[in-house]
Amino acid sequence: MLLQVPDVLTPEQVASCRKILEAAEWVDGRITAGHQSARAKDNLQLREDLDEAKQLGDVVLAALESNPLFMSAALPLKVFPPLFNRYQDGQSFGNHVDNAIRQVTGTPHRVRTDLSATLFFSNPDEYDGGELVVEDTYGVHSIKLPAGHLILYPASSVHHVRPVTRGARLGSFFWIQSMVRDDGERTLLFDLDVAIQRLTGAERHAALRRREPGQARLHLIITGGQAGQREMTGLVALDLELLFAVHIREHQRDVGQDAANCIHERA
Ligand code: NI
């Protein structure tokens, strides 16, 4: 699934982050590239151990945790501490696939990269080129989003960044280890979650209160409409506990409990 998550950061957050980004010291982006992608990579990056990078990374992580669309689509178990890059003067990143496992530098933590994310810090009119081009089973997608918006795509996708021929493209990139490794199953859960969102609060409460987990699940799928019905057979193979956990999260959100159960490991 390739998904745009709009307004992860407010314009005010983007502006204050950009002040820090523009004053920071940038180094060659090959420092975090694997052997193969190092040959394709030509950009600038903030060093991971830089205070500014950690400070900005915390802003991004906090924004993600409070973003229901991101949480629902990614079902994050771990989020790699966000990295920051800059393309200018014709810089680009040729076709590559991201590493399957990323070690968080200086820690024993490893993140399985199920999803890749790019958060844009520059607006499209500030630079020419710089599109993120992602190839998936449905074709080739060229992505250039407003500042503060994020694109989420399977980390197994072949992708590249086109040369920036005018201005500068500032962005953050990172990876997510999801509670659901398989993209198809995760997409299914997302569709289900979207269907549940369409129910009224009262319908949701009634379903969750009256029934056992398995029945509540089916009830919600059925009343959830098209998206749920379409995939009912596929759902049988999924982890029931996890499915119910997703519903519980929805329920908690309704009753005002803390829904931000994102577990991310920090350096
Ligand atoms: Ni990449």
Brief rundown of the structure:
The chain has helices spanning 11-23, 35-40, 51-65, 68-74, 183-198, 201-210, 213-223, 226-230, 232-235, 240-254; strands spanning 3-5, 27-28, 41-42, 44-45, 76-79, 83-88, 92-96, 101-103, 110-112, 115-120, 128-129, 132-136, 139-143, 150-154, 158-161, 164-166, 168-178.
- Number of contiguous helices: 10
Radius of gyration (CA) equals: 19 Å
Overall outline? globular
Order of helices and strands: EHEHEEHHEEEEEEEEEEEEEHHHHHH
Average of the residue pLDDT scores: 80
Number of strands: 17
Indicate the topology:
Blueprint: E1 3-5, H1 11-23, E2 27-28, H2 35-40, E3 41-42, E4 44-45, H3 51-65, H4 68-74, E5 76-79, E6 83-88, E7 92-96, E8 101-103, E9 110-112, E10 115-120, E11 128-129, E12 132-136, E13 139-143, E14 150-154, E15 158-161, E16 164-166, E17 168-178, H5 183-198, H6 201-210, H7 213-223, H8 226-230, H9 232-235, H10 240-254
Antiparallel strand pairs: 1-14, 2-4, 3-7, 4-6, 5-17, 6-17, 7-15, 8-9, 10-14, 10-17, 11-16, 12-13, 12-15
Bound molecules: nickel (II) ion (NI).
What does this structure look like?
This protein has 267 residues and is α+β, with helices and mostly antiparallel strands. 38% of the residues lie in helices and 27% in strands. It contains ten helices and 17 strands. Strands 1, 2, 4, 5, 6, 10, 14 and 17 form an eight-stranded antiparallel beta sheet that branches. The protein has a five-stranded antiparallel beta sheet with strand order 3-7-15-12-13. A two-stranded antiparallel sheet has the order 8-9. The chain is globular. The two termini are 29 Å apart. The structure holds nickel (II) ion. The site of nickel (II) ion (NI) has 3 residues, from loops.
